[in-house]
Design brief:
The chain has 454 residues and is of the alpha/beta class. The chain has 2 domains: 299 residues, 3-Layer(aba) Sandwich (Rossmann fold), CATH 3.40.50; 119 residues, TATA-Binding Protein. The chain is 38% helix and 17% strand. It contains 15 helices and 13 strands. An 8-stranded mixed β-sheet has the order 3-2-1-4-5-7-6-8, with helices on both faces. A 5-stranded antiparallel β-sheet has the order 9-13-12-11-10. The protein is globular and about 80 Å long. The termini are far apart. Belongs to the methyltransferase superfamily. METTL16/RlmF family. One of its GO terms (biological process) is rRNA base methylation. It comes from Cercospora beticola.
Amino acid sequence: MSNSIVVPIPSSESPRKKTRKDYYSRDVDFNELAKHDDDFAAISKAAKRDGWIDFHDPKVVQQLTKSLLKYDFGLSLTLPDDRLCPPIPVRWNYVRWLQDLLDTTSASFSDIHDPEREVLGLDIGVGASCIYGLLACASRSNWRMAGTDIDAHSLDHAKRNFEANDLQDRIRLKKMKAEEDLIPIDSMGVEEMDFVMTNPPFYSSEKDFLASYNDSGRKATDDKPPSAVCVGAQNEMICEAGDVGFVTRILEQSLVLRERVQWYTAMLSHMHSVQQIVAKLKEKGITNFATTSLHPGNKTKRYALAWSFRDRRPRNDVARHGELIMDVLPASTAKTIHLPLHSTRSLGKKLDEALSALDGIQWEWRPLLDAGIVQCKANVWSRAARRQKMFADRAKPAAESAKDKESSSDEEDEVALAVKITCKNEEAEVRWLRGNDHVLYESFCGMLSRALKK
């Protein structure tokens, strides 16, 4: 296992022919899976005879995982009997959400997948399956993954799994000690990473674990009792303070690394865990975060949370994804301005005229797309800002004003606010792209609404 993860992506690398692209949004259709996989068909046949599928049998759970990976992603998997077997739908939904998170916070402002972008991610606690590395690299040909674990037995099996799927050029593993930093970015020989992910131990003690798995009445709609057997090593399931304690360690390190990682993310077991981490983010002044519910059907519920110290804002349906409660929602990154009786073309013309006349902003209008992007370094539209600029211009010599204009073009990264405005029939959608000040975004939306309604 090499410590370095700076490896080139082979030029011949291409996406696998069989790769799922969408989220799992419902329970697995066992009958459909049985039609395409002989190994699972044998289980399905027995289930029809007995009237149920025994998901408290580890062999059944492992076969479902292997069959889904093969059918939906073209991946193979081997697992030891004494380590966790990952449910594929929830794991894939986490990876799929990460794809959306990165796609909608890229430098291009396109909100779509850029196949040329090289992405590097870290899975903390990779486990024996190496499931996140397999799913991430199988679905995106320009992604590379690093994985860490404190358990040599799990790392050995993880290595076997990525090698069996011919991903040894794009996945690297590193053995860690329990007391070391969770994000070993310096010892891995990289300056920056695109994301960090983890499926942390959910339980704070053996007593906590046993209490959850000894609950009576195993209801599939409950988020406490399991819908299937749980077999794994202690370090996979138990740590001090459970998932909240583990993710808090990542949060504390992120306060040091800050922008060296674009997105710090974690899966969480319960909504109250999400609430606790969101509260900690707010305490630290971190406003750029995103939340999602990962459960694909009526089984066990899981959630994921992401935060960033950079100023690129995810699309609203990504930042607030799935069934969530108000307590954990980040600030909205989208606003719709309703303008009755305006066609798309007339609205676009009015929008272009209004923003072209506004000093102090960078405005790029693309009429063929009925959309444009605004960028600015400060609030230049309020009455106070316009008055301040007028007095400053009067007091400034002409030569100095010309010099300011010339130097401003060299400060492209000094953006306080960037938004994309898309015109549609009778409405304009304002998408927050960059910025750390939600009040500034709301102020711009208010100004724009007034200008378009004149």
